[in-house]
Amino acid sequence: MQEAFLYEKCADGTVCCNLCAHRCHIFLNKSGFCGVRTNNNGVLYTTAYGNVITSAADPIEKKPLYHFFPGSKTYSIALPGCNFRCGFCQNWEISQIKKFNNGRGCRHPLEPAMIVESAIKSQCDSISFTYTEPVIFMEYAFETARIARDAGLRSVFVSNGYLTKEALELIAPFLDACNIDLKAFTDAFYIKHCKAHLQPVLDSIERIYKKGIHIEVTTLVIPGENDSSEELGGIADFICGISPDIPWHVSRFFPRYEFLNHTVTPEKTVMDAVKTGLEKGLHYVYAGNIQGRGNSTLCFKCQKELVNRSGNSSTRPEVKDGKCPSCGTDIYGVWGTV
């Protein structure tokens, strides 16, 4: 175990964890909501450090990140656990692993330098902390990202956005890009399905953008839960209010975990959401997992195709010095040489 970042000791032996927006008050010999931060005799420890449960070399588009070095490879890693309890989780076997077997099945601990070495051997240009929630293993992500930066690799968070301002300040110097999952636009949805709240996620999206960290947003559209035109329009308005340049990925839901009785999201619902996002003023809206539809990057001014995508593969971006080569419009993203 490693001593945790960002916590306060209290006189009665309890501790307050300030890493995620739950800000858990943890009693002696108990764990926080995430299950991987434990109060051991008045000292907060992370039990997740080094417990990499899965790793893979992925296209960066799979995160999804469409405006961050398109066509590059990223080394994806995940540690078990999460600070949400989403019944629709697509990766529930590892995000909720402690609920079922108390974390057993993790590989032997891997030092951060070993992750960086594996990323380089896999010819990846970045490391993505993904599949589960990277905020809850911040200590490991921080050290890995720090070593990665020295080795010339970028670092990416694929996150639910439930981190505190303090946590963002800590990781920001070593964080190059984020995809934040904005699951819905009502607090009722977050309380019922995630056991969390909406506002901290909205705050994180705005803070990350203002920090100058590349950001894209994803919404998984679930029939009967968050698929109303009013709610999807609200999400588009919110993103546009921060910047119309922030890409929004709208994805279809497929029944998983505790949502097996829900139906698959109709393609029309996703395409209508894409249309709504564009009508609201967003420059880049993508139909995330509908093969062959709505995945190419176009200049929002002249509609020139800048990146053509098929699945998770993409053509070399036709963006010159961050601008459309046809009309000279600034195109949001990180387009230079990796």
The N- to C-terminal Cα distance equals 35 Å
Instruction: Give the overall shape.
Output: globular
Relative helix content: 25-40%
Number of domain units: 2
Number of DSSP strand runs: 18
CATH class of the largest domain: Alpha Beta
- Low-confidence spans: pLDDT under 50, at least 5 residues? 100-105
Q: Specify the biggest β-sheet.
A: 8 strands, mixed
Specify the structural class: alpha/beta
**Strand arrangement across the biggest beta sheet:** 7-8-9-10-11-12-13-14
The third-level CATH topology of the largest domain is TIM Barrel
CATH architecture type of the largest domain: Alpha-Beta Barrel
Q: Order of SSEs, N→C?
A: EEEEEEEEHHHEHEHEHHEHEHEEEEE
| CATH homology superfamily name of the largest domain | Aldolase class I
Share in β-strands: 15-25%
Number of DSSP helical runs: 9
Rg calc: 20 Å
* Average pLDDT score: 93
Description:
It is a single chain. An eight-stranded mixed sheet has the order 7-8-9-10-11-12-13-14. Strands 1-6-5 form a three-stranded antiparallel sheet, with no helix packed on it. Helix 3 crosses helix 4 (138-150) and helix 8 packs across helix 9. 25% of the residues lie in helices and 21% in strands. The protein has helices at residues 92-95, 97-101, 112-121, 138-150, 165-171, 187-194, 199-210, 229-242, 267-279; strands at residues 2-3, 7-9, 15-17, 25-26, 37-40, 43-46, 54-59, 73-78, 126-129, 154-159, 177-181, 214-221, 248-252, 285-287, 297-298, 305-307, 309-310, 313-314. The two termini are 35 Å apart. It has two domains: 2-46, no CATH class; 54-298, Alpha-Beta Barrel (TIM Barrel). The chain has 338 residues and is an alpha/beta fold. A hairpin with a 6-residue loop joins strand 15 (297-298) and strand 16 (305-307). The protein has nine helices and 18 strands. Residues 100-105 have low confidence and may be disordered. It is globular and about 65 Å long.
